[in-house]
């Protein structure tokens, strides 16, 4: 089964990568770029029957740094 | 307006980051992890009226390395 996890920096946490992209888009001539936030998409191919709790545990232990990141789980 | 862009490695392209995560999950005791692919989520805050073509151009020029990556645009 396929599960997707989106991991984003929590609001308020400085996002240097996002800032860098915003500046680069500006210098490429794209105006109207008011903000950019960059995060991770993790697509997991898991054995059938894997529960959302197990995926949550994967996020808490490894996939997300829960001090500065939040995550959303999209089950298969 | 908010636009989300998912950038993933094209199928067939080796994903060392995904492999590293897969091994780490295994060593943390999670079995049944058959595959892991990791990509980027880019959330853009754009001026109202920005067209999908403009976002496509941003992807082609900067946000995705179209030789090895594919992207999906989710307009606001």
Automatic annotation (TrEMBL), chains A, B:
InterPro entries, per database record: PurS (IPR003850), PurS-like_sf (IPR036604)
Record field: catalytic activity: N(2)-formyl-N(1)-(5-phospho-beta-D-ribosyl)glycinamide + L-glutamine + ATP + H2O = 2-formamido-N(1)-(5-O-phospho-beta-D-ribosyl)acetamidine + L-glutamate + ADP + phosphate + H(+)
Short name of one Pfam family: PurS
Pathways involved: Purine metabolism; IMP biosynthesis via de novo pathway; 5-amino-1-(5-phospho-D-ribosyl)imidazole from N(2)-formyl-N(1)-(5-phospho-D-ribosyl)glycinamide: step 1/2
Example GO molecular function: phosphoribosylformylglycinamidine synthase activity
Broad class of enzyme this protein falls into: ligase
UniProt entry keywords in alphabetical sequence: ATP-binding, Cytoplasm, Ligase, Nucleotide-binding, Purine biosynthesis
GO cellular component: cytoplasm
Family assignment from sequence similarity: Belongs to the PurS family.
Name listed for the protein in its UniProt record: Phosphoribosylformylglycinamidine synthase subunit PurS
